[in-house]
Amino acid sequence: FVIHNHADIGFCLVLCVLIGLMFEVTAKTAFLFILPQYNVSVPTADSETVHYHYGPKDLVTILFYIFITIILHAVVQEYILDKISKRLHLSKVKHSKFNESGQLVIFHLSSVVWCFYVVVTEGYLTNPRSLWEDYPHVYL
């Protein structure tokens, strides 16, 4: 039951957290699942730089995003890969390999897009030295 319905179970848990954001009483608890909890603000000349430290409350946030990943995995499987594999009329072995490769392609493409987003927004293209200056970095 759990293997066949893991995405539905994860969706119910994520939906409970998102519904918890709608009410003032439960919003504080729901934010534990979505945001990093150990905020360290550093005032600068222009404004304020926000860094994050890590701690045990981050495990709840990681668990929440694992459920989000499970849901995205199921959506890609159901609405993209299964539809393509039905049109191709693949054998069971080729169907399995196609699904695994398809999930890997989606994962790597999204990772590359996210990587370019981070590189551009953090300014690593214009100043690549900031990657290793003041290393080791204490805050996230």
From TrEMBL:
The chain crosses the membrane at residues 12-35, 62-81, 102-120. Keywords: Membrane, Transmembrane, Transmembrane helix. Signal peptide: none annotated. One of its GO terms (cellular component) is endoplasmic reticulum membrane. GO terms for biological process: protein insertion into ER membrane; SRP-dependent cotranslational protein targeting to membrane, translocation. PANTHER family: TRANSLOCATING CHAIN-ASSOCIATED MEMBRANE PROTEIN 2, TRANSLOCATION ASSOCIATED MEMBRANE PROTEIN. This is Translocation associated membrane protein 2. The lineage of its organism: Eukaryota, Metazoa, Chordata, Craniata, Vertebrata.
